[in-house]
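Progress note, sequence design subtask.
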């Protein structure tokens, strides 16, 4: 019954974990010099704490467990992040797809840059991996063949983030596969969380470097 309820609530949870990202960009009536820093921090940080607790309770309620940090987890996370971003970078070169993100770049150079960095590197990776790898891959799809669960999780991750089928969705599929495989191999949620955060760090550094 718990698993059925979570399956039905999953699309709603996907929408909810996007709330922290609302604080990472400047709002319509703001500029890089005129903004409400504490409102942005409140939206991102406050929603992260609430949603993180909710997802953690759901995960624990479904029987989820975790393991302590180890060099193995860190190593797998680094490899997953580097490989996924290398593949995405290669695809963008082959397809000549622009990788610029002016809204994020403007936010990073504004006074809310610290909120943007926290959301990209900490808040979003923790919430998304708790939902996708912990709740979806491990608990909802846990009785399937592990690699089938990995593929299904990665596809759902890519489609939800891509919004439309295209090269962007394909690139996100490789990220989803990297995080799902990292979790499948390490059997610890902290591994895909770290991999996701490192991936976002690489993207952010490339964005700043190419600006």
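Output:
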């Amino acid at each position: 019954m718990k698993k059925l309820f979570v399956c039905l609530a999953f699309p709603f949870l996907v929408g909810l974990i996007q709330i922290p990202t609302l604080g990472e960009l400047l709002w319509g009536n703001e500029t890089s010099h005129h903004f409400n820093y504490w409102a942005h921090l409140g939206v991102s940080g406050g929603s992260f704490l609430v949603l993180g607790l909710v997802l953690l309770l759901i995960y624990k309620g479904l029987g989820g467990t975790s393991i302590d940090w180890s060099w193995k987890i860190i190593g797998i996370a680094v490899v997953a992040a580097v490989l996924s971003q290398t593949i995405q970078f290669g695809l963008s070169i082959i397809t000549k797809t622009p990788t610029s993100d002016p809204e994020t770049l403007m936010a990073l150079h504004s006074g809310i840059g610290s909120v943007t960095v926290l959301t990209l590197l900490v808040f979003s990776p923790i919430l998304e991996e708790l939902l996708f790898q912990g709740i979806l891959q491990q608990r909802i799809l846990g009785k399937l063949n592990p690699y089938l669960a990995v593929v299904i999780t990665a596809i759902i991750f890519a489609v939800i983030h891509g919004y439309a089928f295209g090269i962007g969705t394909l690139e996100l599929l490789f990220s989803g596969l990297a995080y799902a495989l990292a979790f499948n191999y390490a059997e610890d949620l902290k591994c895909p969380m770290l991999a996701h955060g490192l991936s976002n760090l690489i993207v952010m550094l490339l964005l700043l470097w190419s600006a």
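The radius of gyration is 17 Å. Work on this subtask will continue into the next period as scheduled.
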